[in-house]
Design brief:
The protein is 34% helix and 42% strand. By secondary structure, the protein is of the alpha+beta class. The chain has a single domain, classed as Nuclear Transport Factor 2, Chain: A (Roll). Strands 1, 2, 3, 4, 5, 6 and 7 form a 7-stranded mixed β-sheet that branches. Strand 4 and strand 5 form a beta hairpin.
């Protein structure tokens, strides 16, 4: 009887661990699609991974220590991130992913380059929901930092 109970608990734990591991990979794929949509200016890709009416907030530290907060609507962020006329590339690393049921959070350092030149760094924070089996970004927030940016462990951009 005890062996059966122990086996059942171990099996349940294995299933939960596998499910969260699989969800983690899919969540990070969704975040990578966010970055890809910026790089390739792919409005359709970006819209496919955002919850309609999602909220997007950036925080830039000003010289006086105050923060400039920019709140963008869904339409504004889609337009801004996929606009023509610039070659942008965003990269992240050391992602922290928290998952509970059908919600998740990704917290990750990033760097951002425009036309092959470093622009800024910061922290990206993505909130995701699982809807109809797909992980979608319901909110994105990020800092914009131009000073004291650590060197990316990813090396120079390609």
């Amino acid at each position: 009887m005890y062996k059966f109970l122990i086996l059942a608990v171990m099996l349940s734990y294995s299933i939960i661990s596998f499910s969260q591991s699989n969800d983690r990979a899919v969540i990070l794929e969704t975040v990578q699609k966010f970055f890809d949509s910026i790089e390739f200016r792919d409005k359709q890709l970006l819209e496919s991974i955002l919850v309609p009416n999602s909220l997007n907030i950036s925080a830039r530290e000003l010289d006086d220590g105050e923060a400039q907060i920019n709140v963008m609507s869904y339409d504004e962020v889609v337009s801004a991130l996929t606009r023509p006329g610039r070659n942008a590339k965003e990269r992240s690393w050391d992602e922290t992913v928290l998952i509970q049921g059908n919600i998740a959070v990704v917290w990750t350092p990033y760097d951002f380059h425009v036309d092959g030149v470093f622009s800024h760094c910061g922290i990206d924070s993505f909130q995701l929901i699982k809807q109809d089996g797909q992980w979608l970004i319901s909110n994105s927030s990020w800092t914009l930092e131009t000073e004291n940016c650590p060197a990316s462990p990813l090396g120079p951009i390609d």
